[in-house]
């Protein structure tokens, strides 16, 4: 297993982390992801630990707390061997304060997550999304207090825009509070918008990327083929895809899959392994979250590391998956001397 520094922090995380949104299967959306229960979850956790994975990711809203509960049971007796990441912000429970990142709610959600995970502390605590109703100062001060109290170790953002993240970092610096060291983001070969602004920001501010859905909700897993129906057992077909249909250009998808097929044959790897390996060689990427419905799928995903695509193979994937940028990025790219892109190779 390879380990990388998480952003500007001193924390070392495995380049592959295990996502547990498949744990529980409560509700139609998460049932489409998976319904892993405690016995199988324990086996999957052990497979990950044996492979050197040290970061396990969940969230309060995954199956409305059930994912955290099952993960807590699965890691019993192993807490000192791993890092736990969980999140808050989205709707959980009922009442006037059942969403958001207010001081009141964050303290409540941390306490509840600690109980469900059966632990005294959370290693990385994410704001699952940006809360435009709560002052950023209130959120960051509450998070700083939670770090000072020992209940969380590091803080991170997720699904923020560039200005959300940059303003948050500036406020933390202004008051001397703990800052976001990571940004959990969607990034895949068929959706590369992360490169437009968030990647340069991450490079400049030393914010590490923890990538979710590197296979675009399974669309880059090898089952999606040109002129063939969507697999009936897929998350997309079952209504559990976190990537909306309108975000995917079908022609880019199938052209990319064709190239993945070609490179998979050259490397002796699977389509999914090639797609994951491509992300591993991008700037700012600290860890990629992989999930699995079963042990076989997990072991296949873990084989995406320990080797590297060639420069030529990377460039071919870059070219086939490239899509037009929106303003102001297309305007800035007209003068690459003034606005040099990140060095991918």
Walk me through this protein's architecture:
The strands form 2 sheets. An 8-stranded parallel β-barrel has the order 3-4-5-6-7-8-9-10, surrounded by 6 helices. The protein is about 35% helix and about 15% strand. It has one domain (about 5-330): TIM Barrel. The two termini are about 20 Å apart. Helix 2 (about 40-50) crosses helix 3 (about 65-75), helix 2 runs parallel beside helix 10 (about 295-300) and helix 8 (about 250-265) crosses helix 9 (about 270-280). It has about 350 residues and is α/β, with parallel strands linked by helices. It is globular, with a radius of gyration of 20 Å.
User: What is the CATH class?
Assistant: Alpha Beta
Rg of Cα set: 20 Å
**Percentage of residues in strands:** 5-15%
Q: Characterize the overall form.
A: globular
What do we call the CATH topology? Answer: TIM Barrel
Q: Considering the protein shown, what is the CATH homologous superfamily?
A: NADP-dependent oxidoreductase domain
Structure, briefly:
The protein is 37% helix and 14% strand. The chain is an alpha/beta fold and 345 residues long.
Task: Describe the secondary-structure layout.
Blueprint: E1 3-5, E2 12-14, E3 16-19, H1 28-31, H2 38-51, E4 55-57, H3 66-74, E5 83-88, H4 103-117, E6 122-127, H5 136-148, E7 152-158, H6 162-175, E8 180-186, H7 198-205, E9 208-212, H8 250-267, H9 271-280, E10 285-290, H10 295-302, H11 311-321, H12 329-332
Parallel strand pairs: 3-4, 3-10, 4-5, 5-6, 6-7, 7-8, 8-9, 9-10
Antiparallel strand pairs: 1-2
């Amino acid at each position: 297993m390879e380990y990388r520094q998480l952003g500007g922090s001193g924390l070392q995380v495995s380049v592959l982390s295990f996502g547990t949104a498949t744990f529980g299967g409560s509700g139609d959306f998460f049932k489409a992801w998976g319904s892993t229960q405690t016995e199988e979850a324990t086996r999957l956790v052990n497979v990950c630990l044996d492979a050197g994975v040290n970061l396990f990711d969940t969230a309060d809203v995954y199956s409305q707390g059930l994912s955290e509960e099952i993960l807590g049971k699965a890691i019993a007796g192993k807490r000192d061997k791993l890092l736990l990441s969980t999140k808050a912000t989205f709707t959980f429970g009922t009442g006037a304060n059942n969403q958001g990142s207010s001081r009141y709610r964050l303290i409540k959600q941390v306490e509840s997550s600690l109980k469900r995970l059966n632990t005294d502390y959370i290693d990385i605590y994410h704001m699952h999304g940006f809360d435009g109703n709560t002052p950023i100062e209130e959120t960051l001060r509450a998070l700083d207090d939670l770090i000072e109290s020992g209940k969380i170790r590091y803080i991170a953002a997720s699904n923020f825009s560039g200005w959300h993240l940059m303003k948050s970092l500036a406020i933390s610096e202004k008051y001397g509070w703990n800052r976001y060291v990571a940004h959990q983001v969607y990034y895949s070969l068929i959706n590369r918008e992360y490169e437009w602004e968030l990647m340069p920001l991450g490079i400049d501010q030393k914010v590490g990327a923890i990538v979710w859905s590197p296979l675009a909700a399974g669309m880059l897993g090898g089952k999606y083929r040109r002129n063939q129906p969507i697999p009936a057992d897929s998350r997309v077909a079952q209504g559990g895809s976190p990537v909306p249909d309108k975000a995917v250009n079908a022609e880019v998808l199938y052209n990319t899959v064709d190239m993945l097929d070609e490179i998979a044959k050259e490397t002796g790897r699977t389509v999914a392994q090639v797609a994951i390996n491509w992300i591993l060689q991008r700037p700012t990427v600290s860890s990629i979250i992989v999930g699995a419905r079963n042990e076989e799928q997990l072991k296949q995903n873990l084989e995406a590391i320990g080797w590297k695509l060639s420069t030529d193979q990377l460039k071919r994937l870059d070219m086939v998956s490239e899509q037009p940028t929106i303003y102001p990025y297309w305007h800035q790219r007209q003068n690459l001397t003034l606005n040099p892109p990140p060095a991918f190779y």
